[in-house]
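Re: the request from the purification team.
They wanted to know what the chain is likely to look like in 3D before they choose a buffer screen. I agreed to run a prediction and write the result into the notebook, where they can find it.
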Amino acid sequence: MRPLSIWVVSDGRTGIENQSLGLAEAIADLTPATITRHVVRWKPAFDRLPSALKQPWMLQQGQHLLHAPPPDIWIASGRATLPLSVRMKTKTFVVQTQDPRWKHSAYDLIIAPEHDGLSGPNVLSITGSPHRITPERLRTAAPAFAYKIADLPHPRVAVMIGGTSKAFDLTLEHAATLADLIAETVEEQGGSLLVTFSRRTPLLPQTVMTQRLSPLPGIIWDGAGENPLFAFLDAADHILVTEDSANMVTEAASTGKPVHVLPMVPLKPQAKFKHLHKSLQDHGAARPFDGTLDSWTYVPLRETARAARAILDALPQHASPSR
């Protein structure tokens, strides 16, 4: 049997692409598959147009995807991909992550966060978002950073800091408060830090957090060189993650390690995030950070693998010219 061909389609942003890429890699863990990553971008003059009005000639990058021999599975993430996903449904099996908020029936399968409340015959709801974290991937990443991490004292605390979004803010004052609380807690335990920042973390808050956390043993990644996140999660005894990112908290909950959720400054009502965090608390994975490092155990969240199995289960029912 030949390997399945899978296209991972996004606008190229890491947090967006990782949802599709994680699903594709989870499928490849279950059956032979080749994965090809593609980027879709619209010319600036047309980028903000509603999806219904966008035409292929408006593309800056990705127009060739409509004319190339189609893959067995098209997995797309992000608003930029929607017009192409709808056009590709006649050629291949189309999977869209998140709630597309447009033409819900125009995709073979939608992998949507349960906290979005989307339902339908072609919708699979999962806790959080699909991602790339697996035990095997963490172990594979660990050796490259072992020489930096091996001598760090326990408990090792991975800290994943997000940033400004439509829902939350990370002000300079709040960043300083968080950094002081984290530093006090880790210092009391005699532990060390493994810190990463999001692309959304504002520069000044990142700078003040780095200054306040750098006296402690550990590593604070400045964004240069290879991303150490997987190695940090592998080495961590505890994970602290800001509440602004469904992706980050879901990734953390897939490790089986205690996940402590850090507060951010809310900019609007947070019903969806509260729903997600409650789901993770009910699962036993996450708790609000209270300035302590209590330990607990739980079954690691495996929603990406569950979604991958659902895609494969649905695939034989789809008649495609590519098969």
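For the purification team: Confidence is low (pLDDT under 50) at residues 318-323.
Please add any questions underneath this entry.
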